[in-house]
Amino acid sequence: MWMIVLFFVVGILLGRLLSIHQLLIRVADQLAMASVLLLLFVLGLSVGLNHEVLAHFGTLGLQAVILTLGAIAGSVTAVQLLNLNPTKKQ
After folding, report:
1. Residue 18 in contact with residue 24, Cβ under 8 Å?
2. What is the pLDDT of residues 11-40, one digit of tens each?
3. pLDDT of 6 above 70
4. Where are the domains of the chain?
5. Chain-wide mean pLDDT for the chain?
6. Residue ranges of the alpha helices (H) in the chain?
7. Could you tell me which of 34, 14, 36, 35 has the C-alpha nearest to residue 25?
């Protein structure tokens, strides 16, 4: 857990130090999107290969929907509370 937090904090610090380089910002954005897509693909592959999950997909589906909607609602609420609007000029 600490390694995840450490990498996150180092990323934030480097991002603040190097934020004037527009090319670096575009590359970081593209790398982040590619990483998320790869993570989703690997997650889907893992679920598809797990026969037990597929066998119980019907019962797990409702729990997954509820958990997903809760995560989305929590994320949207956190963003609104922190007022992180990327289109807003500061």
Report:
1. yes
2. 888 888 877 778 887 888 899 999 999 999
3. yes
4. 1-51, 56-90
5. 85
6. 2-17, 22-49, 51-55, 57-82
7. 14
